[in-house]
Amino acid sequence: MNRSNPRFENKWLIILIFAVALVWAVYTAALGWHNGLSIHNFRQTQTAITSYYMIRGGPFLKYETPVFGVPWSIPFEFPLYQWLVARASSVFQLSLESAGRTVSEFFYGLTLLAIWGILAELRVRKLFRLVFLILILVSPQYIYWSRTFMIESTALFFSAAYLYCILRFVRTRRALDAGIGAICGSLGALVKVTTFPSFALVGGLFVLAKLGSECWKQWKQSRKSSVWSPILTAGIVLFFIPVLIGWRWTSFSDEVKTHNVVTNGHLTSAALVTWNFGTMQQRFLPSTWKWMYSQVITENAGEPAFLLIPCIALFLFARHRIPLFLISLLGFLSAFLIFTNVHVIHDHYAYANGVFLIAAVSWCIVGLLEGSAWKQTLALILMFVCMVSETAAYSGRLYKYQQIDGKVFPNMVPAIQESTRPSDVLIIFSNDWSPEIPYYSERRALMWPAWMPQDVRSPEMKEAIANLGNNPIGAGVFCNQPRTLIESVIAEFNLKPEPLVQEGACALYPRLQTASSNAKSN
Description:
It is a single chain. By secondary structure, the chain is mainly α. It folds into two domains: 11-401, no CATH class; 412-521, D-Maltodextrin-Binding Protein, domain 2 (3-Layer(aba) Sandwich). It contains 23 helices and five strands. It has helices spanning 11-30, 41-55, 80-91, 96-121, 126-137, 140-145, 152-172, 175-191, 196-222, 229-257, 273-277, 286-301, 304-317, 322-338, 340-345, 354-369, 373-396, 398-403, 412-419, 436-441, 459-467, 483-493, 515-521, and strands at residues 425-429, 444-448, 473-479, 501-503, 506-510. A five-stranded mixed β-sheet has the order 2-1-3-5-4, sandwiched between helices. Strand 1 (425-429), helix 20 (436-441) and strand 2 (444-448) form a beta-alpha-beta unit. The longest helix is centred in the middle third of the chain and has 29 residues, at 229-257. The protein starts with 10 loop residues before the first helix and ends with a helix.
């Protein structure tokens, strides 16, 4: 039931606030646009290096992320975003970083349109839909991560479009809406499987609440099994198909990873179960919920203490919006409770479910706007408080990150390019496998992470080197490694005994005989 008050008299005020929020979002998105990918570098350069090699003719399904040697493919997500970035960079002659940020922002804008459609299906008055968009536009999470070289906004758009199609199907019962929903849901699951489940859960609740109750009433009257066809259609087309396609892609990507000596048994979905989901104990740790309070909630919707005020006001003065508030809250919490570990370790994972938290707060404000004059005034005050709180949270951390134009290994990268050939492979020993050095130096790499035997004569290393074939080791890079390991690698691959460049915790050792000739050939 639409409870909107037709005598709402602050229409232009909300429109003005929306315009200000939109200008703020555009301004903050542009900050540091041409900076490198040095902040939150791991995931950004992992995505960017795939687009880099796609531009140069790399395959699509078995796309290259050349950091673990041959085969160069170690697929995780379906590479729709990476391919679109590669195409945008080529067609519009954009730098790869600018293309990545542009495509990310484009899907963020489409997400706002999908949310508008969802609210239309929920019969929210057009003016009041702006409340949801305003709080998203000034959210630190969406200001910052929507401009990164990452898949987040692409996955969020297709998942939000999927939820929109579910709501349309519930209303229209049209096969076309179900079919488009299956496509959007499948793409959402393919692009980022951890984004999809919360939207499927919320969509399933709407299907059960609306279609389930209607089909039950019809069945009690007619006792005909045909009345259950809408539920059956929703179950197969809208839920089973996306899950099946997502599962099939995961199986394919796992099979590809088994062919690489470094990733086999370490980066497959089975090996990463604990990494993705965490442990049951972790869900009850005080530190987990401290992270939720201080980081996740704050960088999505502002200071948690301020959010209690609209929630209390909802239960006191706008109870008709409590069901949608609780559904939104469930959507927010479900992602955190399902994929607890990655949400605690990586703050960008909250991009997938933060919209549900903002929606929950927005339902509180909209519920008041749909009431009497004094409730409307209270709603506007609370919306302003939330906006100020979000802006303060953004200014406290993420705004500063956007100002940093950190040059990634400014001395080492040129040295690598001068002392190696494009066909050479870097052998990199580090505790991690961030693709920064391979990406910026434009060289493929055999990164040897801490989970592999730290012995150049181990069977695993010998197999990895043999797989390189005609791609020789051109240089070694060591980050925080013991001298004994460095010396053994120098001897094994005929590297210079002393580093050419030392930068931070990393040192570069080019190949001994060919360093000078390589520089000339380049």
